[in-house]
């Protein structure tokens, strides 16, 4: 039952409590519209922790036009209540917005509204839930978390630290990388995929069977261009679990670290990917280490960290049990891997089959990314000249690599500078 409030909206005016009047009129009108729709009376609830997660679920539900959500009406008539999605290449679609609309969920008899509150000193949006009792709210919130997890299975959830806080976006996996396409030492590849598969098999039955804490952390390190990102993409696309990709920036803080791990925990079992982990701001490292040490903060989380510069990582990150369990070096491809890569790319369409082995030998110390560039250059030469000078391309790639490593670039001096 709704308790009687100390201050009644109907018995105040702008002269007595002006700010409350401005604040409450929007709430009163929303409740009137909701009661008119259902005939019921409602309590008002606010929430802080899961609002971004709920917002994401609402956006997906509105885009999918599901039957379990109803748009009763816009709240203000001169504020946007429709949202544009897509691009010129993908095509555009229009849906109701999550904000400035009164959204009703008949299954739970619960409503949601993101209302722009206008006061003399500031304007800000505020999230409200309207329900007849606490039980309905709890059931609704749990269902929204489950819907969010379900929607996350359709792509990769990207969390980016910005000046305005943690931003969330959903990216589709448009180019699925098969496990067979991952070029790594066979024993390393086998170990990584075995641990991944067992972690997500029947919610970690393996871990329960052998009384192992249900959490796992691996660190992938090595020179750029040798397949760390490819491996991560292959893992993300081959596991039926939510995948969260966390982009560390200079704005990463203790607040965002806590929010990332709380989000991952609610979506567990889940994969949490942190690329370029060495870029963690110095002032936030102790908080990050504490998050890794938490007794329950990583339950159900498979953590994957990557770095091109392992020497920059605090030894405490990997020398203490429970943080990262294993560190795998993603090495430069050996001759066998280079040959396999060249065969997969079908370079034999440009050169005689027996030359492939020679190329594999001559490309010693080149990365997977450089081998990809070798293929691209061969294809371009063949396309225009119908012949390929493989030795010249390889020499140019090695020289480019040497200059990059030593920062030894030939630069001409110009008297005229372009504006600076």
UniProtKB/TrEMBL annotation:
InterPro entries: AAA+_ATPase (IPR003593), AAA_ATPase_domain (IPR050168), ATPase_AAA_core (IPR003959), ATPase_AAA_CS (IPR003960), P-loop_NTPase (IPR027417). Pfam families: AAA. This is ATPase family protein associated with various cellular activities (AAA). Residues 214-334 form the AAA+ ATPase domain. Keywords: ATP-binding, Nucleotide-binding. Belongs to the AAA ATPase family. GO terms for molecular function: ATP binding; ATP hydrolysis activity. It comes from the Bacteria.
